[in-house]
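Troubleshooting log. The previous run stalled partway through. Resubmitting the same four chains, unchanged.
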Amino acid sequence: MIMDERKFRILQAIINDYILTAIPVGSRTISKKYAMGLSSATIRNEMSDLEELGYLAQPHISAGRIPSAKAYRLYVDQLLQNGMIDTIDPIQIQRHFEGRLHKMEDVIRHAAAVLSSMTHYTAVISAPSSPEPHIKRLQLISVSEQMAMVVIITDAGIIRDAMIGIDEGIDNDTLYAISNFLTEKLSGLTFVQALSAINDLLPKMGTKQKLMHGIEALARQSSQKTAPSYTVGGSGNILSYPEYSDIEKARDFLSLIETNEKLAQLMMTNEPVSFTIRIGPETGMPEMRDLAVVTVSYVTGGDSCGTLGVIGPIRMQYPKVLSILQTVSKQLSELLS
Amino acid sequence: MIMDERKFRILQAIINDYILTAIPVGSRTISKKYAMGLSSATIRNEMSDLEELGYLAQPHISAGRIPSAKAYRLYVDQLLQNGMIDTIDPIQIQRHFEGRLHKMEDVIRHAAAVLSSMTHYTAVISAPSSPEPHIKRLQLISVSEQMAMVVIITDAGIIRDAMIGIDEGIDNDTLYAISNFLTEKLSGLTFVQALSAINDLLPKMGTKQKLMHGIEALARQSSQKTAPSYTVGGSGNILSYPEYSDIEKARDFLSLIETNEKLAQLMMTNEPVSFTIRIGPETGMPEMRDLAVVTVSYVTGGDSCGTLGVIGPIRMQYPKVLSILQTVSKQLSELLS
DNA sequence: CGTTAGCACTCATCGGTTGCGAGTGCTAAC
DNA sequence: GTTAGCACTCGCAACCGATGAGTGCTAACG
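Second attempt completed without errors. Output:
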């Protein structure tokens, strides 16, 4: 059996209807609502075929049918191919960002709020990070006699701060001198490069071993591809959808949203494509079986970039979400550059 | 009518039972489960009195009774007065913090996870902040030709970073010189003091007006008592409790948890007391009517401190929560000092 | 041979009824 | 003051039957 033009049109109608209503759609609905000049009996036969092909499923024998993940994939591919993405007024989104927002963190938090309230799904945004940040400056600030704070500033604007123990008898001025010395030695290096540079320096540093080991540990930690932290907006939105009226499922979703590693897995894009759509099983996570995630990346000056995404039920309003995501992404790029 | 010893014992039994079961408790339950040598009829009379006094309420005529907010307040006051707080093994909590956690943000996130998983309620933790932070260092890093990043480091370890526009023709070295100049002028000052210092400096800065105005705006923003950001753990835990099986209520709760301002209102403690317990209406927020929040503050070296708290249903396991909070608070103070 | 009308059948859902039982207030006796 | 007894209330769960949306199959039609 082959997927012909008519089957596809019917499938499309079913998906459209299901996205709007979330109730299994029957043959009569298609034949009446989406005037295609066919009787319900014919639709029935076609639907039976579509089920055999793996595009439709029946929750139970005497109910309509619902699209499978495979069907959504086909549907989405078709959308993208034909550029069938909603057009929304960018002004409408710009208006949300008019107030003066200075801190990056605030901008991102606000963007997550806007994104979630516009889509009615859950929004996730990662702070911009450079794939290979270069150290720009390293600063030590004494906090107490045994502790200091290390601040490493990179070209991507990432700031890594950590407390480390320091050796006895090091005063503020010495710390400042060391900061300048280390900045000179390390600036322009990536964390991986810095790590070996620090190890080379170790023997020369005499009584500052404890301090240096602290910095080394921080550099090592930073040199590993560290999962960025994510800002979430509208985590409760999922509760509005009937498929998540089950408390158990909703709780699983919320704990997923709170787990940084899981989010990282979802938001990760190896290739810097314009956007990614992952539908249900495509995420590779069993708890995402009936969810879909759409991500777009944004860039801020230089090569550092972040990701913003929307997580919603698998029957997501893809055209709308895609257009909103793209517009917010543009807005975010501008604001953070 | 007066609240006597026996009435109080009965009320206590009712509250205990209701906290455990969440179902309205009847006279028979009290007389049998909590052997107090009284028949259910007597209990019934006392319960009727307690209702008249405003400590009990009946969801409907033929059901048992549930404690009012007033009752919980009495109950909690009694607990505190008698020091009836659970004793938990601090080792058990320490074990959760054994791994090496360098970044403050990670420590807090982890603490929120531990706190929520131990209490089974929602945990909220604010990053430590000093009531009147003093500037330690100000650093400008050029990002592009028109933009620079300002990093202000305070004695509380707070780092305020923001992007500002800079005047044309300022290179990296000049920025560095300005950083040192400004650090010299501003270090040791609070943000409020810095604000006027900057305004004094303005006329002298010649062609760096744009830059200075950027810094001034940042200082002004920082000088206002800014609400700290909160880390939340276990936001979905609330869904486990029958009183929040209502989707509508759960969604309200989740959006509350996401709103920084609301959290700030809940976590705010004007006096630095050891802990605060706010029960239902005492929070002053209508959406918190049947929730309670317990907060404890923790201190990190110096005068900077943060708050950690637990939000749960009004029938919270107060003795358990209090002891866990105190232990985690101690742990957090140690880790961040 | 594809399309469609007709029909028997399935089964989730919804509204109504009923019985149960937990709980109450009241009264009268101890 | 305490308690046994009793009539009464009312939420809740279980049961039941009607409803209707939906299906698959068959036979007739163009």
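Takeaways: The two ends of chain A are 53 Å apart (CA to CA). Residues 24, 26-29, 40, 44-45, 47-48, 58, 61-64 of chain A lie near DNA strand D (CB under 10 Å from a C1').
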